[in-house]
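2024-03-11 09:14:02 INFO receiving multi-entity request
2024-03-11 09:14:02 INFO entity count = two
2024-03-11 09:14:03 INFO echoing inputs for audit
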Amino acid sequence: MTEQLKEGNGGHTHQKEHKQKLKNWKEIPIGGKILEAGNSKEYKTGDWRTFRPIHIPEKCTNCMICWMICPDSCVNVGGVDDPNKGKKGVSDKPNLGNFGGFDLDYCKGCGICAEECPFKAIEMKEEKEFKD
Amino acid sequence: MANIRELALTNERLAPGHRLCPGCGLSIIARAVMRGTKDPIVVATATGCLEVSTTIYPYTAWNVPWIHNAFENAAATISGAEAAYKVLKKKGKINKEIKFLAFGGDGGTYDIGLQSLSGALERGHNFVYVCLDNEGYMNTGIQRSSSTPYGAWTNTSQVGKIHKGKEQFKKDLTAVVAAHHIPYVAQASSHNYMDLVRKAEKAFAVKGPAFINVLSPCVPGWKYPMQLTQKLAKMAVDTCFWPLFEVENDKWILNYDPGDNKKPIIEWLKMQKRFRHLMKPENTHIVEQLQKNVDFRWENLKKLCGKG
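2024-03-11 09:21:47 INFO inference complete, emitting structure
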């Protein structure tokens, strides 16, 4: 591999992180055991993405359909309370499971959320429009 | 039953970072099904897309105890685990309620795992078996299975001058399982997630074996744009290719009847490139054959549900 190619790969932050975490044969547990449940979290699938979901808060009603149908569990659940809670006409029940942003570490950019959102509160934008 | 926002507060049992294709239906279904119970669960998975892409060494996406055995014996494995649990419970070594769940693809359920599934159902173990039907051996590179629909292209049912895709109709596995007269059998789809969670809840609640067959659209196998997974599942239900129903103690219940809005099967076929050859004028007889078969099965099902 040429120096230039190496640099090119290194620029990919997720891949770099992942490469650093690969264990050598002395660090791997005997018998090929995996000691931690759900450790696939260490493998960031976000770098597969070509389109990024953008949330439009004005249209969002916190219905959480996007959370239900995300194949990669990338929709975070926030517990933000309604500012009008306790006032007349607003339920004083604790606010359950609000939309809490996208976990772009794992989002593969399939766009199911944008397609299925009944309020069109999610847009897919090309990844090249973003600098980070 | 809890609504989505209440479900959103429950723990995630399938962690992100698994390597299923973008837009895959399998993980949507697996996440929904595992929300059907609050009790701890033990999961067995037959070889298939879900198994290989969630457990690439040294990672696992499962936040629950998970067993993998060979292609054919997910049902046998989970019934063994359930039998061991029963003995330990009898001896007083475990006193909490644990549920047992097996996932199999259509290859591991319709074809290879059918006899071990049948055996486990007959022995009456208390477990839930979920078949994730993506209509082919997608994991090994899209080969036909007995679940592949009539006329579909796969790598082992090619389209050429003589052969025009698969020449056999899809096996009706849900009816095969219902013929075991187990307490709960259901057919569900990923687009109707609340129906899916409700069915999973029912399946976990019954004493004895339960089976849910779920249609899972496959992006590379069916060849459609990845954001349309849920639309494909919905269209399969609207064309009555994949009706939603349940069989509770031998009582057949239809969950969704599109009525006059029943769409012709061609609507579903033209969304997928594996049926591309059926759009040619010389192949319309294949579409007609398929439509006839779908209608026949739909009428039959309506009769069974007492609506015909």
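2024-03-11 09:21:48 INFO post-check: The radius of gyration of chain A is 20 Å.
2024-03-11 09:21:48 INFO post-check: Confidence is low (pLDDT under 50) at residues 1-14 of chain A.
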